[in-house]
Amino acid sequence: MSNFTTVLNLVRQRLIAPALSNPVRSYAVKPAAPAGKKKKLGKLGPIMEKKIIPVETDANKLVNYVCGSNYLKTGQDVKIKPDSEYPEWLWTLNTERIIPLDELDPNTKQYWRRLRKLALRRNNQLSKLKKF
After folding, report:
1. Which residues of 51-71 are buried (b: 16+ CB within 10 A; e: fewer)?
2. Where are the chain's structural domains?
3. pLDDT of residue 22
4. Are 92 and 81 in contact (CB under 8 A)?
5. How distant, in Å, are the alpha carbons of 49, 72, 123, 128 from that of 116?
6. Is 127 helix (H, G, I), strand (E, B) or coil?
7. Which end of the chain has the lower number of beta carbons within 10 A, N or C?
């Protein structure tokens, strides 16, 4: 029996012990971080740094141009024209509040579009309540 135990001990030392002491990875190695500044890690991964957008402070440009209207790299913002060069209907647009459905005329397209929109919203809310 002593020979049998010595053989088992030799087998353990040669086969089992090296496998336990030095496990081999079977998955990919994480890529190394790029040299330079490191990004902070949050719960969901690296946090993006906020971009600082330049704000126009020139009063003359703010009064005479529509700032931000040029989204291309070249060119200029749109220059503001005098009020007489714009169409008359532009000054009659409702910018104050949404007109309630009760105040709209039922013979207009605007009334029926608003009614359809409200009905769609109501149906969507009701479908959320269904339990199946």
Report:
1. eeeeeeeeeeeeeebeeeeee
2. 59-129
3. 56
4. no
5. 43, 38, 11, 19
6. helix
7. C
